[in-house]
Amino acid sequence: MPATNVSKATRDQSHARVFDLAELSLRELNQALHQLTPGSNETAWEVLNPKGSHSVAVGVDQPVAIDVRGSVGYYCGGMNAGGTITVHGSAGPGVGENMMSGSITIKGDASQYAGATGRGGLLVIEGNASSRCGISMKGIDIVVHGNIGHMSAFMAQSGNLVVLGDAGDALGDSIYEARLFVRGKVESLGADCIAKEMRPEHIELLQGLLDRAGVTDVKPSEFKRYGSARTLYNFNIDNADAY
Fold first, then answer.
1. Where are the domains of the chain?
2. Is the pLDDT of residue 24 over 60?
3. Fold of the CATH domain 50-231
4. pLDDT at res. 2
5. For residue 180, what are the CA distances in angstroms to 10, 18, 207?
6. Residue 122 DSSP SS3
7. CA dist 10 to 43, 52, 123, Å?
8. Threshold 0.85, pTM exceeds
């Protein structure tokens, strides 16, 4: 493997390690992040001039804080395991895909399938999210300050999707045991997804998620809960039209 010139990375006044992608390659950034070892004192990172680059800060597996100063392309923060990633802009498709732990915050909008297959951690989108947000989620928590597009939470297995705005068509289609909380209007529900009672334990859970996402001006009582009717777990000829 050819040597990389990570020595061009600098430090700012807060002692963060600064990677300017106008001068260094994305490969050099991700390689430096992957070379971190437990207990490293390089806990603060700043990425300049991402200019829509794809796969920024993928595979982070140490508890470091990464501030990306601009918008990113697809798969930013994929497979994150313990990092705290903040994108000061918008994100392309697949942000936080298969995230394991840690957090990702998008200050702008997110494109389609945000948080897909995520197994843990917290994904916060302060703008809107496009179609298929939380598709096949497996334990991740997702909080969207704005609206989400169609087919969101498709085949969502576990975890929580919180939407402060509206939801598009076919919300929760073929959902398993994930919990969906929507404050605004739902265009339509997908197969086997139904409205459910908001019990005290759900109010408590939702308040915790809003607190973690930095939402202070919204009450859990303003949301409706949706989840699985559990009619598609096993094939039943009476439900054939829903498959």
1. 50-231
2. yes
3. Pectate Lyase C-like (2.160.20)
4. 43
5. 43, 38, 14
6. strand
7. 14, 21, 28
8. yes
